[in-house]
Design goal:
The protein has 15 helices and 10 strands. The C terminus is likely disordered. The longest helix is centred in the C-terminal third of the chain and has 28 residues. The strands form 2 sheets. Strands 1-9-6-7-5-2-3-4 form an 8-stranded mixed β-sheet, sandwiched between helices. The chain has a two-stranded antiparallel sheet with strand order 8-10. By secondary structure, it is of the alpha/beta class.
Length: 408
């Protein structure tokens, strides 16, 4: 805990505020607000989402909850709808991969719009933004696997956007990633890859404005963020594991840094990803795509790229900085009496280092990547697509429910 400020406004957790829930419900009356949760159906079979639901029930003034759901059958979607029946606000289940949604989005190819993104969180977020911004001026996104979800999370994420006098358009979370079971430090992709990578690139190409911006975030890979409608509809959405860095790049492109804040959520735990046995698995695949996103941002915002000589230097710098970070986190863990496997951390740095050259070369050979167009772009061509998408996302649910009622 500290009180330092920098390029990005930081909202600290000082530990003195006991309950923000009343203030949040009162403030939610000022601006219609939606919460967006992208998820797979499997999350409905795990305890985290049940706990999240109980917390969300207390947000009595929430305008809408949007569940961007990837499911295999209409029965799974109906089960998800029943799961949220008791909520005190409207809940929209958006079946992101339903036949009707696929057909609707494929039909937009006639307008030159490529809207069938790679199935995953990015595509779900894009659909969720379209649905949520129909009726709400503020949208907050949370994952469905958060084990430590409490009223503090939505309160601290949403409140900065409800008081328009501060002029904030985007809020990003940061937190302490600790395993509830072991108390061990998590977040290896951030601690051991992104942090050392950005520090190494700064030494290599200088502290340009985009790199300075990325390094100002305490947790650049945090999947929890909130934004105003005006910003949300102008963001292009990446379809790979570079989603979080890609969104930070889009935010940088669209608003001044004075309109951005980061919020301390305290202790945070959710599912942990394995390192993977190759660059196509686990954290290694994730970090490969994150690197591509960083390189793309460097091109877009600083007009810089890496030469073959610089790539060799980056490999050396990254390993040195990564090994230094392992020592730092080892000491941090020791003083806080946290278990720490230094050998395993060193192995992770070695594996991440081996990704740098092939990932960079792969990106430079094909620097363009699929990004779903912003909703402002889509609506300029098809101004009813938001409503059409929402209807398509619930069409099979409504049809099946009506059939069941008729049969009954």
């Amino acid at each position: 805990m500290d009180f330092q400020q920098g390029l990005i406004t930081t909202i600290h957790e000082y530990g003195v505020t006991k309950d923000l829930l009343k203030e949040l419900n009162r403030s939610l009356k000022k601006r219609p607000t939606a919460i967006l949760i992208p998820c797979l159906y499997e999350e409905f079979e795990r305890p985290a989402l049940r706990d999240i639901k109980e917390v969300l029930k207390t947000l009595t003034e929430l305008n809408e909850l949007v569940i961007a759901l990837s499911a295999k059958t209409v029965d799974q979607v109906i089960s998800a709808k029943k799961f949220f029946n008791s909520m005190p606000f409207p809940v929209h289940i958006q079946w992101t991969n339903s036949p009707s949604v696929i057909e609707l989005l494929r039909n937009q190819e006639k307008n030159g719009l490529e809207l069938l993104g790679t199935p995953g969180k990015g595509w779900a977020v894009w659909q969720g933004i379209g649905v949520a911004t129909r009726k709400s001026d503020v949208v907050a996104l949370f994952d469905a696997d958060i084990k430590t979800f409490s009223p503090l999370y939505p309160s601290r994420m949403i409140l900065p956007l409800l008081d328009e006098s501060y002029g904030i358009s985007y809020v990003k979370a940061f937190y302490s990633r600790l395993s509830l079971e072991t108390n061990q430090l998590q977040g290896r992709a951030t601690r051991l890859f992104v942090g050392p990578l950005l520090a190494s690139m700064e030494q290599l190409v200088g502290n340009g404005p985009f790199l300075q911006y990325l390094q100002s975030f305490r947790y650049p890979l945090a999947g929890e963020f909130a934004f105003t409608k005006d910003l949300a509809v102008n963001l292009r959405i990446p379809c790979d594991w570079g989603l979080e860095i890609g969104l930070l790049s889009e935010v940088y492109r669209n608003v001044r840094t004075s309109k951005i804040a980061q919020v301390d959520l305290g202790l945070f735990d959710h599912k942990h990803k394995n390192i993977g046995s190759s660059s196509k698995e686990g954290l290694q695949k994730m970090c490969t795509e994150i690197l591509s996103s960083v390189l793309r941002g460097l091109m877009e915002h600083q007009a810089q790229t890496l030469t073959s000589t610089q790539l060799s230097t980056l490999e050396v710098l990254y390993k040195r900085v990564g090994e230094d970070r392992v020592k730092q986190f080892g000491l941090d863990s020791a003083v806080n009496n946290l278990p720490y496997d230094r050998h395993e951390e060193e192995l992770s740095v070695q594996k991440f280092a081996k990704l740098l050259r092939p990932a960079t070369q792969g990106y430079l050979a094909n620097p363009t990547t699929q990004q779903l167009p912003s909703w402002s772009r889509v609506l300029s061509c098809e101004n009813k697509l938001q409503e059409d998408l929402a209807n398509a996302g619930s069409k099979e649910i409504n049809s099946t429910t009506k059939e069941l009622i008729n049969n009954y």
